[in-house]
Amino acid sequence: MVVRAKNSINAGLPARAGARHDAALRWGLVLACTFLGAAHRALTPAAIICAALCGASLSAEYVKRPSYEACAGILLLLCMQNFCIGLGAHLFGNTDESLRYLTQIPFIVVFCVWAGGAASRKMEKLSPQSFCFVLLLAAMAVSLTLGRGTLTATLVNVRNLTVFFMGFSIARYNLKESGQFKKFAAFFMGLSAAMFAAGAVLLIAGYPLYEAIGIHEVYIAKAAPFEEGRLDYRFFTTLLYTQYTRMGSLYYEPVNLAYFFAAALLVSLLYRWTDNGRVRFAACLVNGAGLFLTFGKGGYLMAGTALMCVAGERVLRALCAALGIRTNQRTPYVAATAVLGGVLFVLFCIYYVRNIGAAVLPHFEGIVKTWQSVLKRPFGYGLGTGGNAAIALGGEGLFSDVLAAGGETGLLSYMYQLGIWGCAIFSVCVLSLSAGGEGRAYYMLFAYLPLILLAVSVLQDNTFSPQCILPFMFLQGAARAVKSEK
User: Alpha-carbon Rg of the chain, whole angstroms?
Assistant: First the structure.
């Protein structure tokens, strides 16, 4: 007997199919709300409320029926949010600052999906990861008593300090079955191919097409400066004395897009998401080309360091076996590989500064100046007072030296705000997500990924923003939940 869906617009469909169709409609409604909210400032509050209600209803659905669609829907929303904002605002001539609030819709949805799931499992034993997250929330609360930036800047930093754990938790619950994760990986590869195609079209068409889909309106929403009549500096890089245009695709941001393609490349190279070898090879080519064309050093570092850690552990194991050194424990190999990788990471940074420099020099200057500021006040300056977001959203004249307040460096900006002790709690919380087993290279990777994210965030301000961090957290959460394949 076929069970029919009740109380659904899809009453004629089997229960599971009807639920999936309802969920797809709600994800579509979130995107429509983003578009309509961008059309006119008067619609913005209603759009945000509607998106929150959709997130709450989706949470209830995924609590009953865990599904890869939770992570897939969020990933699609991250890819399409700027397109919906830019196109809606451009078509209807909206350049109001209210566009800023629409950029928070993905986080609102993520929060609703996470909170609903957390509330439904409130009686479960508190995991070490959740305990670390509670400590982080306490550190953030204490930081607010020491000082704070503007309300908007504070909320943006709260988002960046918490969204990584929410994404991890959502994936750990919804991708705990290997079949669900394989479906998510296939969706991810299809989405990355679509993002590459859109990026290639925009790269060829150039500024006129970007303007037509609202690139200036997107940067108003991001509270970021931009240049009229042309693509701004974010879309250009110099390589071997020649200037190149960078791929931004529907992310409208090459730096953030680099993280997306880095995560996709790691999946396509290390995970057997389909048995068709030609399709996997094509996905590797597409994701590799997409990452290369972004010219994003954060994405390069993420993918390159991750692959080196996986290869390094295998080489170390082979070397130890050749020397007759054997152990059934993986921890010594992971520790040795992490230490060696850290040393090579530092040496590479030193070499890069001395011999290449270029656009990366402000990041290193920011590290030095922020550290000097932290030493003057090791307990922190207060939540929302540091980093590029605080500078952009804090108003004129608030910061005499951008780089001394955590600009251009993510981890140091958190240290500036929370203090050394608060940043240590944040780092422990991230490292507590470490996962991975003895099986295939894909699962080996996730013992290192949290450490790599922390290292790269020293050189990048936006590593823990939703568009950059969530693809990695979905993979990390799945690796934590799914047993290693032997």
Answer: 22
